[in-house]
## 1
Amino acid sequence: MLTLIAPAKINLYLEIVGDRPDGFHELVMILQNIALNDRLTLDFSDSPQHQVICDHAQLRDPAENLVYKAATLMAQTFPTAFGKYGGVLIRLEKNIPIAAGLAGGSTDAAATLVGINLLWHLGLTQPELEALAAQLGSDIPFCVAGGTAIATGRGEKLDVITSPPSLWVVLAKHDQLAVSTPWAYKTYRQQFSETYLDDPEQVPARAARLHSGPLVSAIAQGDSQQLAEHLYNDLEKVVLPAHPQVQKLRDAFAQAGAIATMMSGSGPTVFALCESEFQAQDLKRTVAAQMHDPELGFWITHLSSQGVHLAL
Ligand code: C5P
């Protein structure tokens, strides 16, 4: 039996650069692991089928669960190993909020690929696992690689960079609010497609601009003030106007003295960066008291340089 830790991510930077022939968007991002994680245990099953056990009501349907899709992909790609070892029993302990912009489903899928690789003694390399991960979703290769990375293409092309200083993070999300990622990108296209690059040849220049820009240098130098000033997320332009409560939350974090605050991915989770755990606790208390909303969930965690890994 194996136990894997599957950490969430936040986006320190998300720029939508253009359309792609496959219907997705050309992105330039910085993805960053945080310590908040799900736990998966993988074991051989008595059944010839994969089984996923999860107590989260919204994840009971296997067809909707990326863990099941990842296990199915492994069975299809490695039929000999599947024939030899049979189905995998996967227990998923869910701690990362779902449909939250934190890659919760993606990191569970990444852990499933990593775990089955070990369980079936497949000997796949990290690039091979990342290639399988890209078949399941755009940010799943990052969850395999972990740490801090510049992601381009659909989000699957990674350039791992040095992780920033271990800042503390307060996450907040309205319980009943979920933002559909396809909706966010579709709405962005409707409103901002005139800003898209016409020429795909110009895309690498955008990635190079980020690479040599102030955010990456702030990360490299561990300059948290500079880092905070250059966080960016294009999807805020569509999600914040559609969900004023997310804007309100972001404003509350800014007023309460966070180093920086921003929506993660397609939202609706808002994160705020702090120098210490004490400051994070204080920030949470202040914002919770100000918002006075029983539907608002808070999590305190910190930046992490580790992607999916085996539990010790
Ligand atoms: O790849 P993933 O399943 O995470 O993508 C979810 C949705 O987000 C896609 O169906 C698409 O609508 C949108 N998306 C996009 N461009 C990307 C990544 C995601 O338009 N690069």
## 2
Amino acid sequence: MDIKDVVKQFGFEGELKSVNEFGSGHINKTYIALYDCNGNEKRYVVQEINTAVFKDPEGLMENVFAVTEYLKEIIAENGGNPERETLSFIRTRDGKMYYETEEGRCFRAYVFVENSVSYDSADTPELFGKSGAAFGKFQNMLAEFPAETLNETIPNFHNTAWRFENEFLQSIFAASNELLSECEDDIEFVTARRDDMSVLSDLLEDGKLPLRVTHNDTKLNNVMFDEDTNECVCVIDLDTVMPGLALYDFGDSIRFGASTAAEDEQNLDNVSLDLDYFKAYVRGYLSEAGETLTQEEKHYLAFSAKLMTLECGMRFLTDYLNGNIYFKTKYDKHNLIRARNQFKLVEDIEGKLDEMNRIVRSIDLEFKAKHLFQ
Ligand code: ADP
Ligand code: GN1
Ligand code: MG
């Protein structure tokens, strides 16, 4: 079905001018639909949900509608602009949360956040720090949301040990000898870090870390910034909002945004963890979430950056061994390049963990001291 016919299924105002593909996500397909509305340009975002990854689109849309409605109330109570500071989903003409074509393809639509941009990398630590504050605030706003009412759209999403046992090892068993010999060192790299994988899930199971409503995909390009002021406008890409650990969100942000290189940079000499970016993110994040987080959570912030990077690298490697069936790729070895990039970052983080822990402790103490004297 043509994308123009899909777009017409939603209750958009005006006359359709164009539909163009947009964004750099690895899973869904995003389009911007441009409308002429009495001489004014109006844009809408239409996305095709990747149903191979999100097998329950109904459950996914229930989550995003529930979370965005909840956020809108909090934003309005605090004097903010609910239409701009969270996503606004638009139903189909017949009132459904998403449109399903006869072939079973699923599309949903939301209001385009005008005058905003997303970044694949931050030019300055300050900008990255603002995304930390945005995700910290997002976490706080959802602190009282009844997590048990959310559908677990992808079970075990950040359960690294589960992914190792059930996905990574399976991909090794099924891979050809040729692939296995090409990836021998990479497989060894992951396996050598097996003990790290269950650290957070064990703490959760033992009740030492609280279950929270989390975003689970906290890449920098999932925050929209105001084009004029460069202040954060809203957090987007809510498909993976589920019960989880605050540490998943913190760690994944660092993995993506505090690296000195893009996720698929091939020259590994360019890949390392920038401590200034890390520091700025910790400051932004704790400025919003510092009072909500437990000491145990803060204790594992730096470690979570290592674990989320290892997990993501392992997922890229798994997909490479499986024949590239999950993440969008642009060339044959794209997933292998991404995996090696993440492993280089893991190694670098390992060498910097003590310093990262010192940074977290000192910023936390600084905020605590400020509160004492307020
Ligand atoms: P993906 O799952 O593919 O990452 P996203 O929901 O993050 O999809 O959307 C991809 C990109 O589209 C974002 O990085 C952002 O630049 C843009 N985008 C998404 N939603 C909006 C919106 N409501 N307003 C403006 N731009 C948006
Ligand atoms: C995917 O869709 P996107 O690009 O925001 C993936 C994340 C990975 C990320 C790696 C549902 O996110 O988990 O961390 O790629 N999303 C899903 O860049 O698997
Ligand atoms: Mg995204």
## 3
Amino acid sequence: MTEISTVGWIGLGNMGAPLATRLVKAGYDLAVWNRTAAKAEPVADAGASVVDSVRGLASRDVVFSMVSTSADLEQVMLDPDTGLLTGDAVPQVVIDCSTVSVESSAAVRAVAEERGVRYFAAPVSGNGKVVAAGKLSVVCSGDKETFELVKPMISALGRSVTYVGEGEAARLVKIFHNLVLAVYTQSLVEILTLGEANGVSRQAIMEFINNSVMGSMFSQYKTPALVNLDFHPTFTPVLLRKDLDLGLAEARRNGVPMPITSMTREIVQSAIGHGFAKDDFATMLLVAAANAGLELSSENADVTDGLDPE
Ligand code: NAP
């Protein structure tokens, strides 16, 4: 295969929908499938066609997937009755963007290779608004020749593509990234709580951090959530707990102590226990405040996430 002409997409959640939309806008002939059919509507409005089963995408040259967990990836790819890789026809290339374990990814790769399908791991950094702003980063691994083939498509998803080697290397790098995300967020919500106890506004603290060497695209785009308590979900604590568990499983397998990460995992669990499972993981702020006996209210401040859509 030297040219990609048709593309499929499985999974149109918070990430999948804006990512698939980018491919349509980049001019690709895209067909999509989502378990909950209604979520395909905005992507169809952007110009994608919609199929009613995973296997409806089997004749596409390339199929992307963006589902929640390792078990979900295995289901959409390997289910004996409905899986993409277990039917009569298979696509030429499968690119999975979900954050999943090395083991699951390797299991899917083994079946893909048996069926003559090139399988490529391409997990991502950034939320749905980051995608719409064109600022998503992709880390990818797999066969180098496949990388050269799919690079233009993956590049259409965001602003940077980092190739980290063969096999499942990208799975590890993505999991490591989310361990930093969790610990950094916990650190931020602790100092914001300390600020509250001292009468210093969250807006002031975040403005200084965002302008300092400690600031990042992440601290900037989380600022409205942290200052104005906007917890509309971009990424849930349930998915973050999944990534902490994936990272800690690797740590245990390799005998690497990760004390701060372990503690953060339990804090994310407590956010879920506090009833924030379906809210944004920035609700870790409310847990930190509650632990200090403080109740927060929105500062109703004019702050920006720095993510203007392209
Ligand atoms: P989400 O909004 O919960 O969407 C999950 C998607 O997976 C939905 O389309 C869902 O279908 C589908 N799905 C889940 N289980 C399935 C199954 N068994 N069979 C078929 N479809 C299934 O999650 P998300 O935030 O988009 O995250 C997707 C992946 O990206 C996760 O691995 C996450 O860790 C990773 N990620 C997320 C972010 C972020 O900021 N949100 C950033 C980087 C990476 P339904 O609509 O039917 O439920």
